[in-house]
Amino acid sequence: MTPHMPPSIGPELLAVTDTIASIEQLAGGNVERIALSLAVLGIVIGVRLVSGRLKKHSEELSSKRRLLLSTTVAGTTALAVLAVLAIWGMSGALVSALENAAIADQLSNVVLAIVLLASAYALTDFLGGVIRELSMESTAISEHQEEILLRTLQVSVYTLVVLVIIGLFTDNVGSLLVGAGFLGIVIGMAARQTLGAVLAGFVLMFSRPFEVGDWVSIGDHEGTVTEISVINTRLRSFDGEVVTIPNDEVRARPVIDRSKRNRLRIEIEVGVDYDADINRAGATIREAVRDIEGVALMPEPDVVTKRFADSAIVLGVRYWITEPSMRKRWRTQTAAMGAIKAGLEDEGITIPFPQQTLSAREEEFGVQLDSSIGRDPTRMRRAEDVPRGDGGDRSSTAGNGDDR
Question: Which domains does the chain have, with CATH numbers?
Answer without folding.
Answer: 11-171 (no CATH), 196-257 (2.30.30.60), 263-346 (3.30.70.100)
